[in-house]
Amino acid sequence: MLRKLSTFLPGTLRSACGASPLALSRGFKAVADVEIDFNNREVLKKYVGIRDHLSKKPGTRGALIEALSSVLNAIKAVPETSDYRKAVEATCQYRMKVCQENESDAGIEEVLDAHLEELIKECKEEERLVPYMIGA
Fold first, then answer.
1. In this model, does residue 27 exceed pLDDT 60?
2. Residue ranges of the domains in the chain?
3. Distance CA 36, CA 45 (A)
4. pTM score of the predicted model
5. Residue 51 burial (CB < 10 Å; 0-12/13-18/19+)?
6. Neighbours of 27 (CB within 10 A)
7. Are 117 and 54 in contact (CB under 8 A)?
């Protein structure tokens, strides 16, 4: 077991642990050079790992509209004169308008220059922030 673990150590420490010459010559294998189409947002999301972390579900556009509506309802508790409320309302209303004007997920992502999954996550975080802003 110690020999297996020693393969992760720098060379000077490997020799002190008694690692075999085979382990010393072992290196990382290069990943094959793959042609990525950066204009295809679905391929790009998979390549970057967004799909793995945020998991695209069917009806992402509807989920974004629902999340934006939820933030707009939550922000009503903040005083109308607050700059924070004005900024959040303006942002959410603009994004809502873009969602209503574009039927496809790719169209919305193109206009907003962001992934829908990230925007939904951002809305959830903003909604959690509102109670703290009321107390401030």
1. no
2. 1-30, 58-135
3. 11
4. 0.62
5. middle
6. 6
7. yes
